[in-house]
User: What shape does this take?
Amino acid sequence: MFNKEIECMPVKKLKELQLERLKWSIRHAFDNVPFYKKKFEAAGFHPDQFKDFDDMQRIPFLTKQDMRDNYPYGLFAVPLNKIVRVHASSGTTGNATVIGHTKNDLNVFSELVARSLSSYGVTGDDIIQVAYGYGLFTGGLGLHYGSERLGALTVPMSGGNTPRQLMFIKDFGVTVFGSTPSYALNIADFIEKNMPDFKMESTKLRIGVFGAEPWTEGMRSEIERRLKIDAYDIYGLSELMGPGVSYECKNKSGLHLGEDNFYAEIINPDTGELLPEGERGEIVYTSLTKEALPVIRYRSRDITRLFRDGCSCGRTLIKMDRVTGRSDDMLIIRGVNVFPSQIESVLMKFEGIEPHYQIIVDRKGPLDDIEVMVEVNERLFSDEIKVMNDLSKNISNHFKSSLGISAKITLVEPQTIPRSEGKSARVIDKRKI
Amino acid sequence: MNVTQLSAFVSNKPGHLQKVLKVLAENNINIITLTIAETVDFGILRMIVNDAEKGHKVLKDNNITASITDVLALEIDDTPGSLYKALDVFAKMNLNIEYMYAFSEKRQGKAVMIFRFEDIEAAKTALQDNGYNIVRKIDIIGEN
Assistant: This one.
């Protein structure tokens, strides 16, 4: 364990630490960021009124739009000469979101990534290949500095160029690999198609660090089976920091949240109302130690739940479920709320179905149509039409019974659904609503 | 001996069937007869070829989903009522034909039918008991 004192701190003590840091963070935002001051005052809130966790609900939320509106430096709470790095989101839907970090912020960032790696069983003796993109995106540099903090040999590969990734895994004796889960599957496809003689067993790879996009248990077992590794989830968001906000332990049963640096609440995404511990909803974050850009009640749009289960790994840090979707990519199909990940878990129940699928939602006439494209590989194929039709019917019935929606299943040829090297675009919404 | 059929999954879109045929052509696979079962979204191309194993391999190598299956090739007289009589054997034995198709050319004045059964051995026995000639793989593709 990288920081036993914090990671195994008794819950009562941890909460005291959080409360003390919350007070500082809220005051820091109010005193140094005019935007927060104005926003708090408009909501009738003053930091002096903040006494206990219950008072959180009096503070207004921070949204992604607020961050865009303050492009580029509007939310910084320290002078620019104290900022040593910025990261930014791509900004395809408006202004980019720019996040600044002080030296201390980066220290916290690398420690949290080091804690994550250590939690998967990675040590300073490991060789880590970082196949997340380097640059403004937090994945590459985030994992990179965490790996160095742990003292591991770090290979800064960045994403893409699969043959070279595989060559280095083999030649460098790489033991740990980090990328998006869809890129890991991309690599497995590549090996199967182009390098049938490449045996994963002949490499030293043992652990995979996957994050930056939602994935499921089905994808995990697919990656573990095909790449012959243990696959762990790392979670984060650039608005807060990047990967390492929460991380799985060996139990693979939820992600421990870095509670000494972040305070999390779960709300009903429609009403903004606080939900009790254990209930599923949108997770809202408040940073506790961030100097450059304090984040107060940020609406992440990520859907999960928070719970303490006395984890056998010894960590007392609260756990969150693997993020199963986002409140904003939630599909409402004929009035039914559906997350793409739920569609995936239905597909994963079928032996032989690969985790490459695409969902197309369209509205022809008054009703929504959902079409799920599934690639037919040799395990699903039959020379008899009735067997193929039974397969589609069977999948369709499962959709009906588990999600309550009627989906049209379209069987397509292998490799027709686009693979992405970054985040997969699995849902195409053609509706004009 | 049964005849080996090569089947391929083909999207029901322009150019897709051609892609399969191109792969077979480039690998010198000759199609002796074929049939397509189609649905709105996809078709299943079923073929008798000169080398089914090789055909299967080259399709796989080109990311085309394919499989090989044993089917029954049956020689019947090219006269009215011959197919009716042959099917009578299956009906009496309660053997369900999954699908069937015909050879495009006659062989020594006889027609050749391809049948797909759930239980190919039962069908063979029933036919042989009734004096039918089951065509062997080697007769169809010729010796080379």
